[in-house]
């Protein structure tokens, strides 16, 4: 998270404060409380969509 905070800080110096640009940042900088679960859920949804394209399923 410290690295993501640094990236946000550097980006903000050139483009203004825009926290949505960086994911994985600390909550006090606009991060999401449920980020870890949301990332895993997103991987599941993407995997299901890909498998669906090939007529397969996760289970």
UniProtKB/TrEMBL annotation:
Cited InterPro entries: Aminoacid_DH-like_N_sf
Keyword GTP-binding: no
Keyword vocabulary terms for this entry: NAD, Oxidoreductase
Cellular component aspect of the GO annotation: mitochondrion
Domain of life: Eukaryota
Molecular-function GO terms, alphabetical: glutamate dehydrogenase (NAD+) activity
GO terms for biological process, alphabetical: L-glutamate catabolic process
Protein's name according to its UniProt entry: Glutamate dehydrogenase 1
